[in-house]
Amino acid sequence: NAGVTQTPKFQVLKTGQSMTLQCAQDMNHEYMSWYRQDPGMGLRLIHYSVGAGITDQGEVPNGYNVSRSTTEDFPLRLLSAAPSQTSVYFCASSDTLLGNTEAFFGQGTRLTVV
Amino acid sequence: KNEVEQSPQNLTAQEGEFITINCSYSVGISALHWLQQHPGGGIVSLFMLSSGKKKHGRLIATINIQEKHSSLHITASHPRDSAVYICAVRSETSGSRLTFGEGTQLTVNP
Questions:
Q1: Which tens digit of pLDDT belongs to each residue from B59-98?
Q2: Rounded distance, CA A75 to CA A90, Å?
């Protein structure tokens, strides 16, 4: 049981480049989400999904796109990278159908935009 | 004011000491999570609680719903406990969405 798998672990981008952060979970969880973690701040929600085909914006969605074509996968796309998107990104999942349940996190992606 | 406030922000202890990290929140919640993040590593869930107290090994988490306050205690602390400890809440109206505190950096010296 792999839990939440997030790739890549590290990435350096030039301003204006695009890329996709991958996130997959094998626990059949309905709820998946992407967060960014910046110094001096708590994790902030970028986008989330409550099931396949359903996505919604979080606190800081600008510059990011998501899709949820399957229950397992929830990729995060940076459309045109900016230095302000330098951050550590975490994907998480939980099972909403059982009410309040444990959240599972990926290992994180450290992204630097130069 | 953040919905979730943690204290202290930084904590240094000697091995063997009893440690307490506090979390206060301002909204009605359905659950509170304590998470641990090691340097360069991912985030793991330590506890999820909605009332009372939970214990796992040397870790104890308590919550007082009326006072909107939770504490994480570590007994007989060890250098391997050094990590960032994060409090997160699910509000009554936000479904599965979590709101996070800024974290408490704990360093335990040998």
A1: 999 999 999 999 999 999 999 999 999 999 988 877 778 8
A2: 11
pLDDT number for residue A100: 63
Find the CB nearest A42 among B42, B48, B102: B102
As a whole number, mean pLDDT of residues B20-44 equals 91
**What's the CA dihedral at A57, A60, A61, A63 to 10 degrees?**
180
Kindly report the number of other CB atoms within 10 A of residue B106's CB atom.
Answer: 21
Q: Is the pLDDT of residue B3 over 80?
A: yes
| Distance from C-alpha of A9 to C-alpha of A88, rounded to nearest angstrom | 9
Measured CB to CB, residues of chain A less than 8 Å from chain B are 31, 33, 35, 40-45, 48, 50, 58, 90, 92, 94, 96, 99-108
pLDDT beneath 50: ranges in chain A: none
Burial of B39 (0-12, 13-18, 19+ CB in 10 A): exposed
Residue partners of A69: CB distance under 8 A and separation at least 6: A52, A53
| Residue A88, phi then psi, degrees to nearest 5 | -105, 130
Q: What are phi and psi of B79, to 5 degrees?
A: -55, -30
Q: Which residues of B touch A3 (CB under 8 A)?
A: none
